[in-house]
Amino acid sequence: MTAVPDVPNTATLTISCPDRQGIVAAVSQFLHNHGANIIHSDQHSTDPEGGTFFMRMEFHLEGLARARESFERAFAGVVAEPLNMAWQVSYATQPKRMAVLVSRYDHCFLDLLWRRRRGELNVEIPLVISNHEDLRRDAEMFGIPFHLVPVTRDDKTEAEAEQIRLMHEAGVDFAVLARYMQILSGDFLQAFGRPVINIHHSFLPAFVGANPYRAAFNRGVKLIGATSHYVTEELDAGPIIAQDVVPVTHRETPDTLMRLGRDVERQVLARAVKAHAEDRVLVYGNKTVVF
Amino acid sequence: MTAVPDVPNTATLTISCPDRQGIVAAVSQFLHNHGANIIHSDQHSTDPEGGTFFMRMEFHLEGLARARESFERAFAGVVAEPLNMAWQVSYATQPKRMAVLVSRYDHCFLDLLWRRRRGELNVEIPLVISNHEDLRRDAEMFGIPFHLVPVTRDDKTEAEAEQIRLMHEAGVDFAVLARYMQILSGDFLQAFGRPVINIHHSFLPAFVGANPYRAAFNRGVKLIGATSHYVTEELDAGPIIAQDVVPVTHRETPDTLMRLGRDVERQVLARAVKAHAEDRVLVYGNKTVVF
Amino acid sequence: MTAVPDVPNTATLTISCPDRQGIVAAVSQFLHNHGANIIHSDQHSTDPEGGTFFMRMEFHLEGLARARESFERAFAGVVAEPLNMAWQVSYATQPKRMAVLVSRYDHCFLDLLWRRRRGELNVEIPLVISNHEDLRRDAEMFGIPFHLVPVTRDDKTEAEAEQIRLMHEAGVDFAVLARYMQILSGDFLQAFGRPVINIHHSFLPAFVGANPYRAAFNRGVKLIGATSHYVTEELDAGPIIAQDVVPVTHRETPDTLMRLGRDVERQVLARAVKAHAEDRVLVYGNKTVVF
Amino acid sequence: MTAVPDVPNTATLTISCPDRQGIVAAVSQFLHNHGANIIHSDQHSTDPEGGTFFMRMEFHLEGLARARESFERAFAGVVAEPLNMAWQVSYATQPKRMAVLVSRYDHCFLDLLWRRRRGELNVEIPLVISNHEDLRRDAEMFGIPFHLVPVTRDDKTEAEAEQIRLMHEAGVDFAVLARYMQILSGDFLQAFGRPVINIHHSFLPAFVGANPYRAAFNRGVKLIGATSHYVTEELDAGPIIAQDVVPVTHRETPDTLMRLGRDVERQVLARAVKAHAEDRVLVYGNKTVVF
């Protein structure tokens, strides 16, 4: 697999399909015939005796920039349709557009903005949405439009509609809840129609819901953690993308657990967002393949 | 704090009492007046505004071997009673006597026996009790009496009574369930009257009960763990002593999770047992202080 | 140990002295006699058969705010001098004043400023000194005076003199090299006369000096790390305060190692700086006790 | 990729060759044409702009058991020679034969024997070689022939010749130094002609050579580790396969570091040996790709 770092002609193909013999051969042969160089290739079979096959191929193809449509049409006809694939191609010149929703805690929020600024996170951040004013100044320091959408018990539906309107208008590809404290309604996900990544401040499935640090303190666990997952209708129950923990002792209080947990939260969320932005996360059932 | 490693005159004092000013002074002054050298000293307050105070002092006292009774009587009168302490003294010449209960999985069981043989774990193991024959030969290779006590749904009460009889007879100070697969009845704990340490093959409070590796597989967690805790009436709910995790990916199956988990289980159980054997674990409420 | 969180009357006493019997008793008795409540107490003996004894006691003493001098004089006379102690008292109302030196990499620098802003790091940051302009705007966004002190091979002595002048003028208690890329001369440490904490981007003592990520890449290690230590005359050889690692695979390049390493660097530096700020680090020989 | 777990017809193909376009296609097409099902596929390019390409394909092929020669001949002619590949096929029915060399420490040695007994490690262990008698009984309890080959400064050459003779006679595929304390001569590796895996009780490249725990203690590191690597002529300098660390504090002594380090050593060695046994380790330069 060889490639020259030539962004306009670099792309990532992700595939899932019913597992059967010959898929790797078909895809790599197709790419080879088109003169593509494979930069990275990953695959996974969920079940050796049938099941689902997942593949991610990052490749470089001279002239791809001008020939996307014909490339995709050819792939569909020659490989994807015969093999009954769900697939997509992401182009290196078009990073995903990510909305950040945040309430008042700044740690995950700032960490994401800063990673993007440093070039670690290859996304566009067209807007930040918050239900509080607190983080407006920080967003502006990063040059990102900040939209205040307050939420009260009575107007949740209107607030959500406004959030979705703002995100659709900005052509957002996915949203990140970076310690956004409001619970999204089931309708939200339907109406938004794009992936939503959340960070939950516990090691799921332990301590679902509110106040996980206090619950962890009461249980006397010796590790606390954070989990990043895709949001589904059921609270804190969606496909897990990344998790990590940190050891704690009897000396901790709920406050110090919260402090220690912050570092885990921001590392875990950043890892999950980066994986999603790079098309390395594929969902099946309520689980993920993370290449 | 200075001490000469002189085992007959070395002891560990553990204390818990209502927190108040002056406890450290009282205890250290008492020891100083008796000519004791403090080797290690640890303390913990559960709540800066009152609460419970815990202390562990390892000390050396010339002549202690011959004067235990008078030492303990003096301590009781001068310090413990005025300060309303629960306390005990463990003597280095008398390691705790530990029973091991195991079913068919050998990994935790062998790990404990081997650590003791190597001198890492300072306990006596007067007996092994199992509901299967599988591990008899291994126990005998370590020179430890093996007792088969089969358990069926109908005779659980008799089986438990036999286990307790064997352990009381052997003067056992605590029992370790080293992947012992039978659930102990509430009566057992009452009748046994000593601490029981269990290893549960998940990161509690996640995946309580049976088949936690399969449950972890289904949830798609990215870390699996093991938890060692004191057994209480409620299953997998007792005070946690030690926990650890290992990262896993989408490539794992329930079988490989079980394999990866075994290494975590034996490390965690060994850590908990060693802490208990060294009087470094103090229980309050449903939590532990682990010095 | 009981205390009311009453900052004006809270202090931390740190001690080191030749180990001998009776030190804990003497110190706790002194505090008790003065009506102090001990909040936290930690001690360590470097050698059970003699050696050095270290202690850290955080306490609350009604009226301390007005009686510091007499308290310290009493302690000196009654305890410290007879026991030949090196000691100091830090008062909760006077957080340490920390200078940050940084070159162009912003990750450790920003992480420290954020933590302080969030209240996690209890220090004053009176100034930032840099040999480049890059981070001026970031410092100003945090409201911290930024001083550009360029360094070239010819004027290192003048540059260092200027840095020291600035820091002495600002009453700085310690300096942090947050990926400050210039090597400090031996004279600097003498002239500055305060502790200097550095973050080195490898797991010392491996990969001392320049380009540790490239060296790690060439050696093919499967973990990379970061080390925070006190600066001494010998490069990267001073007492280690904190270290951590992250696993890496054959897939990494020197660039991705650098990216992965950044997260470790900032966590490790923050941990070390926080420990120092809280008087939890005591140096002996070329090593540290970190309570 | 689909496969039926049918051991006689399962094999693993490992490849390295100059990187170029079309390799994945060529190999997967070849396998597909022969009716093989790919179970697992991993690849790695050392350099996107040329360099070396590595691949490991685990596959199932009906009738392979009877047709190995023709399969290999076909692969050589159609794929390997045109693409200038170094390659080999391992057959699932023929686990590698592993010799264990050990001195007096039993922890790594016992851990390997247990794992094999439990079915975790798919190797044959035809013999154990030791320069001391201590572990004979343990080897015999596992039913493995134990050979005492004493080594003194004068007779090292003869001792090594005897070790190699024993291993060649037993058809050993690789040797594991499981805390074997003698340093092998450069001639040994030449004469043995097979891979040798060592466990070094430090985090290389720190603390090469003897007494790494004491060296770690003196340096005051806050993590200790272990490294498993292929043995080369230069001591502790060969390609690293696996590493891990455990945190330590100022409370440790060289003895407790040794105790804590043992658990890391055995985990790391087991991980490396398992990877090698499963053909997941490919060497290039002085580094490894570990699939």
TrEMBL record, chains A, B, C, D:
It comes from the Bacteria. It is an enzyme of class 3 (hydrolase). Its EC number is 3.5.1.10. Pathway: Purine metabolism; IMP biosynthesis via de novo pathway; formate from 10-formyl-5,6,7,8-tetrahydrofolate: step 1/1. The keyword NADP does not apply. It catalyses: (6R)-10-formyltetrahydrofolate + H2O = (6S)-5,6,7,8-tetrahydrofolate + formate + H(+). Keywords: Hydrolase, One-carbon metabolism, Purine biosynthesis. The active site is at residue 236. CDD domains: ACT_F4HF-DF, FMT_core_Formyl-FH4-Hydrolase_C. Pfam families: ACT, Formyl_trans_N. The keyword Transcription regulation does not apply. PROSITE patterns: ACT (PS51671). Residues 12-94 form the ACT domain. InterPro entries: ACT-like_dom_sf, ACT_dom, Formyl-FH4-Hydrolase_C, Formyl_transf_N, Formyl_transf_N_sf, PurU, PurU_ACT. Catalyzes the hydrolysis of 10-formyltetrahydrofolate (formyl-FH4) to formate and tetrahydrofolate (FH4). Belongs to the PurU family. This is Formyltetrahydrofolate deformylase. It comes from Deinococcus malanensis.
